[in-house]
Amino acid sequence: LAAAAAGLPFNYAAGSLHHQICDPNGTYCVASRAPLLPLFAQDKVRFAFAILGAVLIASCVAALTNAFVRRYWSFEARFLRHLGEDSIVLAYQPLLDLSSGAVTGCEVLARWRDINGEIVPPCSFIEIVERRGLTERFTALVAARAFAELDKVVPPGYRLDVCFNIFPRDLDASLLCRLFAPFEGARDRFRLIMEIVESETVCIEAAQREIEALRAAGIKVYIDDFGSGYSNLANIAELSVDGVKLDRSFAMAPDGTMMAQMLGHAIDMIRTTGRVMVVEGIE
User: How many angstroms separate the Cα of 86 from the Cα of each of 92, 180, 263?
Assistant: First the structure.
């Protein structure tokens, strides 16, 4: 039998178990054959429990294996395992001075490169960064990579405004000065701008203290995405920020819509505060 030749003790064929034993020389062999149905019929309960136990064990093993694979290969797991300076990809959105037409600065936009090479937008991982308490580490990685890349391309004698988005929980002057120390050491070439988003988690009084400390350290502060979320004109008046970025939903709104009509009014309101104004989405 094929099973015997392969060293297996039993072979199943045609509803029966077959077994063969031969002497060392292969001269004499004894073969046995036992039909399965009578065997099952003799002890149905034991076989039933055996089959049920096998099914339960197989199900548990499959569930544990599936859970392990999901934990190992899920997007969040991949992101946490491979988050590092080499996996951070930065895009630089230019800031254009409308009066001169010159590019005066850029906003640093972070992306992440997945293990398959796909470039992942921030909407897919920012929530993970915040929930996992990785905001400081993530900002440090972005700052280090941005300086390494910009330091190579910004020519001597040219000073560039460099804007970074800051997590509300990281609005701490001493922390930010430490994370962006390379830029602070090259003030003749880079002017740092921290962009903060107004949110329900930001205490105005505490934010004002940190903003004043940042400005004293030579770092400008802008309010980002004004016109969306929790932003309001009162906060612009109360916070000593240097500039305001108008949310792109105004400029990108179709002609004739309410948002498009509000663009002019929003510009007038920001001008009233005397702050520098950046309008997103005009491209």
Answer: 17, 18, 40
Q: What is the reported pTM?
A: 0.72
CA nearest to 125, candidates 82, 94, 93: 82
Q: How many Å is the maximal CA-CA distance in the chain?
A: 108
CA separation for the pair 77, 113 (Å, rounded): 14
| 161-181 confidence digits (pLDDT tens) | 999 999 989 999 999 999 999
Q: How far apart are the first and last CA of the chain?
A: 78
Contact 179, 142 (CB under 8 A): no
The tens digit of pLDDT for each residue in 116-157 reads 999 999 999 999 999 999 999 999 999 999 999 999 999 888
Question: What strand order describes the sheet that includes 11-13?
Answer: 11-13, 16-22, 29-35
Query: Length of the chain, please?
Result: 283
Which one-letter amino acid corresponds to residue 105? G
Cα(101)–Cα(118) distance, integer angstroms: 34
